[in-house]
Amino acid sequence: MAYRTHLMVCAGTGCVANGSLGIKKALEKEVKRRGLEEEVLVVTTGCNGFCGQGPIMVVQPDGIFYERLKIEDVPNLVEEHLLKGRPVKKLMYVPPEEAKPIPKMMDIPFFGDQLLIALRHRGLIDPENIEEYIAQDGYSALAKVLSSMTPDEVIEEITASGLRGRGGGGFPTGMKWKSCRKAKGTPKYVICNADEGDPGAFMDRSIIEGDPHSVLEGMTIGAYAVGAEQGYLYVRMEYPLARKRFNIAVDQAREYGLLGRDIFGTGFNFDVEVCRGAGAFVCGESTALMASIEGKVGEPRAKYIHTVEHGLWNKPSCLNNVETWTNIPVIILQGAKWFASIGPGDVSRNPWGGSKGTKIFSLAGKVYNTGLIEVPMGITLRDVVFKVGGGVPNGKRFKAVQTGGPSGGFIPESLLDLSVDFDRLVEAGSMMGSGGMVVLDENNCMVNMAKYFVSFLVEESCGKCVPCREGLKRMEEILERITKGEGKEKDIEVLEEIGIILKDGALCGLGTSAANPVLSTIRYFRDEYEAHIREKKCPAGVCKELIKYEISEEKCTGCTLCARKCPADAISGELKQVHGIDTSKCIKCGICYEVCKFDAVVKK
Amino acid sequence: MIEIEIDGKKVGATEEETVLVAARRLGIHIPALCYHEVLSPYGSCRLCSVEVVRRGRGKVVTACLYPVSPGLIVKTNTARIKRLRKGIMELLLARSPSSETIQKLAKEMGVGETIFPKENETCILCGLCIRVCDEIVEAHAISLVGRGIEKKVATPFIEISDACIGCGGCAYVCPTGAITIEGEFIKFGDNTFGKLNEFRKKDTGETIKEALKMDSKDNKNE
């Protein structure tokens, strides 16, 4: 049956949390009530990435984008758009500081400036229906590989594409596959790392939830290339929907003969098992992940002997991240040349020579458009934050952007024109990581931010090696003191010294990179540390112990609002009289500062 | 047989040997707290860190785990390594200030006092006890539980374990005296691992000591 219109309702985790499944039901009901069920189909799709604006719906084929839908909007929307042909302006996206809405999805800078490779099926297919994936050329890369390419040819193609690991390490994928193919020992394994643990990052979840077959197809191609017959998807416990959809994909692929024995009648066998993590961040580290699959304590081990030779159950194992795997089918279909034409550097002689393709980031923090974005490698940080992200809201000044997750570094405004690629980010004291990107404005205290991420890492360190377990704890103590106004002159030096011990001495990637948030903030925002330590002041006005609230006599109108909202009864004053704050009672929650309409409450 | 170079001295080594083993054969002292020659290396204390030089650039690795390869150049006592070991020692001294083993090693590395607030933890989580229990006794009675600063050695559910055969191997091997034999019990803080029985008290203890080569100089952290 052919429909004239498809209503693509986003069913990513963000939109579902905002009630998109209720919207879907209401749409179906309304479409039926209006007698449009023969012409209009309501479809649920994977995550669109514009999670701050959810629930989202795209009307196809015209590409009209609706945001922040409510159930009560549905009758009017169906009547106006679907019956009368008049798209509803008030449900469309309005860019920051503009009045005119943008009707079409691809005209919105958030979407228009992206380049979708890994997220190529975003919002286009039903992730629980294999036929929709197949209709988008799904599994044709696998067919091509199994029918016309040798494993070595597949590896050559991936190597030539310049694809580097998207989980954070940036290791050339083709090189890894080649070593695994050459490694002695059977059986061999391929593993998909879906233990995405960076706070606020959800690239991998979104891919699996939205396009699980692309991951499965990539893994199957990888298995053929390295000579494996068994694969594992290690997915974190907190991703039940991703797990469910991946399991559905595995069942469907088995049913269609795309997984299991004698795939496409070529004699190639491959199957996948789903392993669930138990909630440890460190299990995203490849050796800890393998220990966890084996049922052992989730601790990393030294990688002097590589996992491609001795990995899972001591057998050659090829582990890649979700985003890496999902890139594989496209590279096979469109060719290494095409892929290598995107992004900076030259990988024709040296696979480390550049950063190719795209990278997905989860853009969060003080930025107008938050959500999931896929951009070409080599884009500048400025374009990510100000074009795709729409800039910093509320007229505040941009301060820094943190890339690479909790152990990434903070990059200041002076480096906004930095190219986003594996090597430039490391040079700037940060890293690509798995793709977290947090934007900070003038109201963020850098010492406090460093403390936040160090605290996260203290919690998540496995505790095996001394530098990471003991060193991070000491860093946290020092940062805690500094933010309380108890910093000592030597503290910065000691923090840097612990940073060196971590970099040189820690066992795994978590530990060696853990000092980045501290070292990069010292490098670019040393003056803030010094203000905390010497003047006992927090320039951004964040560290509670270092600020106090006062009421300006000139500005206070005596409206009593602050006194009524104060949870500690610290504010007193008569109506139409200047109010005052009792500092002994004040808990510095900042509510008075936020509620005052006359800017009479001042932070000092 | 392959040849490698440690601190300018050539030494022969067999494949699959580690840098630490080769260095000790040469009489070069590399400190190590979590290493024991009859147990598999674990690499948690990081004190045996050394630099390997490749294409003129030094890389820090742990000697107890790093496999030798033909032409490998190792430096055990560079400024970078000394600084790292000193830093690690300061951290350990803050964790376990009353441990004699730690005090002695700290002194050896020129660390007099730690700048960090002192704690009173005897266990340094070197994991030797667990490896003895797994690899020598094969009782698998204890394991690491929790993570990060909460991590500790324990029996399942921190209760007296049926799996513990009461050999005391964990207490013999513990470098800091965190695991103790008190009367008939093997204890680790509030956690009683198990009970020594008559037979085990007499025989297994000696057998374990022998298996662990307790008389060997290298195993006394000297």
The number of domains of chain B is: 3
The number of strands of chain B is 10
Biggest sheet record of chain B: 5 strands, mixed
The count of β-strands of chain A is: 18
Largest interface: A-B, 34 and 34 residues
Termini gap of chain A: 67 Å
Supply Rg of chain A: 26 Å
Structural Rg of chain B: 19 Å
Number of helices of chain A: 23
Strand order, main sheet of chain A: write it out. Answer: 7-8-6-5-9
- Spatial order of the strands forming the largest sheet of chain B: 2-1-5-3-4
Report what the structure shows.
The complex is a heterodimer of chains A (604) and B (222). Chain A is 38% helix and 15% strand. In chain A, the strands form five sheets. A five-stranded mixed sheet of chain A has the order 7-8-6-5-9. Chain A has a five-stranded mixed sheet with strand order 11-10-14-12-13. The N and C termini of chain A lie far apart (67 Å). Chain A has 23 helices and 18 strands. The model of chain A has no long low-confidence stretch (mean pLDDT 94). Chain A has five domains: 5-107, Glutaredoxin, CATH 3.40.30; 130-340, NADH-ubiquinone oxidoreductase 51kDa subunit (Rossmann fold), CATH 3.40.50.11540; 358-441, Ubiquitin-like (UB roll) (Roll); 446-534, de novo design (two linked rop proteins) (Up-down Bundle); 548-603, 2-Layer Sandwich (Alpha-Beta Plaits), CATH 3.30.70. The mean pLDDT of chain B is 89. In chain B, 27% of the residues lie in helices and 19% in strands. Chain B is built from six helices and ten strands; from the N terminus they run E-E-H-E-E-E-H-H-H-E-E-H-E-E-E-H. The relative contact order of chain B is 0.12. The longest helix of chain B is centred in the middle third of the chain and has 17 residues, at 79-95. By secondary structure, chain B is an alpha+beta fold. Chain B has three domains: 2-77, Ubiquitin-like (UB roll), CATH 3.10.20.740; 80-121, no CATH class; 128-220, no CATH class. In chain B, strands 2-1-5-3-4 form a five-stranded mixed sheet, sandwiched between helices. In chain B, strands 8-9-10 form a three-stranded antiparallel sheet, with no helix packed on it. In chain B, helix 2 (79-95) runs antiparallel to helix 3. At the A-B interface, helix 17, helix 18 and helix 19 of A face strand 4 and helix 2 of B.
